[in-house]
């Protein structure tokens, strides 16, 4: 168990770094392509049209994976701490793991279903 946790501190660091890079890179590509106004665009606008939508989707999917890995690592750390001294109720630890994983799944859904794509398909089908 301890060999699994050894050296896992890079995962949250990589999560924050990669997620920040996802927003910055998709912003830069959107501005250079002329798809958004360079002064304070919405984050969702910087990842809606190709090519930045593909970059944004890929990078946020990997961020969701890193978030799930971070949540699982946190779960195992708290579980190990509970073996030596009472740190937290195991039920709360499990609930936090489940909520974190649900959030990561939601982040993957947001990355794969951009707003412009959905609006165009509903306009074609006449659902508006």
Structural notes for this entry:
By secondary structure, the chain is an all-alpha fold. It has one domain. 74% of the residues lie in helices and 0% in strands. The protein is built from 5 helices and no strands. α2 runs antiparallel to α3 and α3 packs antiparallel against α4. It is elongated, with a radius of gyration of 19 Å.
What is the strand tally? 0
- SS-derived structural category: mainly alpha
Number of helical elements: 5
Distance between the termini: 54 Å
Membrane topology: Multi-pass membrane protein
Main location: membrane
Keywords: Membrane, Transmembrane, Transmembrane helix
Protein name: DNA damage regulated autophagy modulator 1
Short description:
This protein has helices at residues 2-5, 10-33, 52-84, 90-112, 115-125. It is an all-alpha fold and 128 residues long. It has one domain.
Secondary structure layout plus pairing:
Elements: H1 2-5, H2 10-33, H3 52-84, H4 90-112, H5 115-125
Task: Name the features.
DNA damage regulated autophagy modulator 1; transmembrane helix; 128 residues; 5 helices; DRAM/TMEM150_Autophagy_Mod; membrane; CWH43_N; mainly alpha; 0% strand
């Amino acid at each position: 168990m301890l060999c699994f946790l050894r050296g896992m501190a890079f995962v949250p660091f990589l999560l924050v770094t990669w997620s920040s890079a996802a927003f910055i890179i998709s912003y830069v590509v959107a501005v250079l392509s002329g798809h958004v106004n360079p002064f304070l665009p919405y984050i969702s606008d910087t990842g809606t049209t190709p090519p930045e939508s593909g970059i944004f989707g890929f990078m946020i999917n990997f961020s969701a994976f890193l978030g799930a890995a971070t949540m699982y690592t946190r779960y195992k750390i708290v579980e190990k701490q509970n073996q030596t001294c009472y740190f937290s109720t195991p039920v709360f630890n499990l609930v936090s793991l489940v909520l974190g994983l649900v959030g990561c799944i939601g982040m993957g859904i947001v990355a794969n279903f951009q707003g412009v794509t959905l609006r165009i398909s509903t306009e074609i089908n006449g659902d508006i």
